[in-house]
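ok so heres the complex, two chains, lmk if somethin looks off
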Amino acid sequence: MATTSATGTEFSGETAALLAEGEGLPPGIGPWALAWRRLRRNKTALAFGGLFILIVVVCLLAPVYSHAIAHIGPADETYLSKPFNVKTQEFAVSPTGIPIGPTWHSRFFLGADANGRDVAVRLLYGGRNSLEIGFVATMITMVLALILGVWSGYFRGISDGVINRFLDIIWAYPAVLLGVTLGTVLAVGGIGPLHGTALLVPAIVIGIVYIPYVAKPVRGQVLTLREREFVDAARQQGLSHARIMFSEILPNLASTIIVFFPLILANAILLEAALTYLGAGVQPPNASWGTMISDGISTIPAAFHNVLVPGIMLVLCVLSINVFGDGLRDALDPRAKVRIAH
Amino acid sequence: MSLEAELEPGAPIERDGGPLLEVDHLKVLFPIKAGVLVDRKVGFVHAVDDVSFELRSGETLGIVGESGCGKTTLIRALVRLIDATDGAIRFRGADITRSGRKDLEPIRREMQMVFQDPQASLNPRKRVSQILATPLGMRGVAKGRMQEESHRLLQRVGLHPEHINRFPHEFSGGQRQRIGIARALAVDPRLIMLDEPVSALDVSIQAQVINLLDELQEEFHLSYLFVAHDLSVVRHVSDRIVVMYLGKLMEVSPAEELYSRPIHPYTSALLGAIPLPDPNENRARDRPTITGEPPNPIRPPSGCRFHTRCPRATEICRSVEPQLTEYAGGHLAACHHPQHVTAHEIAESTRSPTSPASAGDEPPTADE
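and the predicted structre for the whole thing:
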């Protein structure tokens, strides 16, 4: 047996000497700071992010525009028999029923609709509603999807099975079909104390429809995270399940959540427009980009600005969210460099 | 049957100088489930199968064996990350095998673990200060003294105190393992389980980390349970060594004796697998080797688990599971045909009470 000489490794050297090992490194740069650095280099994403913020700010200023500049409310209909501009004898809607197009006046800057309402004012108010619904719906989706996804991925077992089948049921329906069904039913009946015409109704409908699209990936990620050794380390230190979920797993989901947020937001705004167009979303007299498109369809041959203006806003808004979201994903994804190469 | 079984289960045996950790016929079986809608248990993986040993205060107990022999499962069961199927784990005489999270809290403060992969065992989204805050909080360190304590800990494991606000990805492998050690050390434990703490590191870094562990053991009077597959590392750190194969104990021996006088053929084979630095010497030596893979732990071989690969196996090895035989000097081996022992020593030997319950009563037979 020749064994003894094999193990003759003599360990020497003071660990104190190692103190020098980490010298000369910059002070702690966290994953967030790194992501921000990458995002800052992506000028396109930043520009579109800025555009989105501009749209939000302008839409939030809708009442200011309405009161101080246009002097007309979003639902105010100018009488068809009376000219809105006495000097020029201009009518908002001509006697033949054709609404006025864009003008250089502060009122009817973007023209009027078939009911003689100011398109610019309605566009801002409608944008406010569309964005509001989009944000609320996205928040509903995110919060519920996180709870369901983290719970089912972390505890697995029976609750995982039940939650997943429930998500499968939602997922089995096309988003628009489910939205129209739920929206129609709820618009008629309302939800509990909520009246059917409340803006919250379409927001809840849209929020529910998109839950599986976020909950499923979150669950998958939690399934892998819970097997990681740092979770074992936390369990070994006696942390409770709740604390492990909040302080160990949730921070590792943050980038997923951030990437999903703009994605769902853009989809929610689009779905709102689609549902409203089909009559299952925002109910009159509330304005939204969807209602404006829907109302404008009948006057397309004579006054296509009624459809074009909210359509352009919708596209700009969704596009800016998506481009910014893509940039965000590239910045947060550690393999971003690989993705840029192709 | 074993003597341990006659003790009242869970009876507090607070003895000074008694074993810090007792493992009593511990079994960890993983059920294998199959079925389309309803899971049925179709079998078990015998990861740890009737293992008994004790760890004395202040000692380092090495656990070695091939990958898949149940070392990591054993250590995870001991820190209660995995629930044991059968048997008992006693810490300072108190049975902790089935204790709940709240009851385990004081035990966890004394029993810590360092993981194999320092990269995976540190949360990538937490700063070092946050990683250390949890165990420091367990020890009852006040918020205001947290920073100071963390600095002291980092300094003790050979890291810069200024590194406290960094994230794990900003460290090298060796430094990360030092953070892992600092995290274990933060609660001021008595016993640290080291699950292959250096096998993911470079050889030069291994030496530094092992030296650090040595220093810490002396300074804080720690006991170590050191799991490794690298026999040369284990020899350097261990006072006693446990050799495992397919979930069973093969040999338990004081460290030096295991290397100079391995009784179990499996131990000899493991020792023969240690490479020598000199290639000529390495080639020239006559070493016992075993070939092939370990058998499937779902259907372990009958009798002695090692008989399928053992050069000394005979008929009895196939049919009767060997008892753990205690030789002079606290050297235990589970083999029907022990080597490096005289007929006299075999005559003097006794059946160890830690023998598996399923083991036969046949005493080992002398060589030649």
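quick notes: Chain A is about 65% helix and 0% strand. thats all i got rn
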